[in-house]
Amino acid sequence: MGRNKNAVIITASPRKNSGSKKAALFFAETAGLNPELIDINRVFARPCIACGRCADVFRCFQKDGVQGVIDKIKKASPVIIASPVYFTGVPGPLKIFIDRNQPVWEEYMKKKGGKKGARKKRGIIILTAENAAKKHFLPAERELRSLFAVHGIKTEAVIRISGAEKEGVACGRSVARRLEKAAGLRGKRPRGAG
Prior knowledge:
This protein has 7 helices and 5 strands, in the order βαβααβααβαβα. Mean pLDDT is 86; it is low at 185-194. It has a single domain (8-183), classed as Rossmann fold. α1 (19-30) crosses α7 (173-183). It is globular, with a radius of gyration of 16 Å. The protein is an alpha/beta fold. α6 (134-150) links the parallel β4 (121-129) and β5.
């Protein structure tokens, strides 16, 4: 199948073959997608300095790799973010990227007054952690849901995987069923899938 140019996977683990990345790739394959893969750890990103310049122009003055990823998210559907959970949050490079979406937030607040608009684009969140209960995933999940919301992306599914770094867990039978269910998006074949 050819590349679905509208699909993007953003991975956040510093590990090359992490459980979160394996789960995201399994999801994409199951959904019939061949998305662009973005490792957020390889995107040169300076932290937000809270200067406020983006409030009027809806763009950050810093010249690095962040705006390119934001532009890809704006064109993408589905957007899949796969991340490990560290101390109930996302890893530093992903947090820096989220914070640098402040221009998108400013535009969202000024144009929509913070009200929910029609969310036509779709998003999937895949979170992994070692021996974690649901409550340990929630802070990271909320942050990613907020990122999706300001981009006009509806969170279609959240897959929480505990013990994903253990051999075979990321795409073991139980996890595979949840990923397959999400890939079918409640029995419907995802848009753009073969």
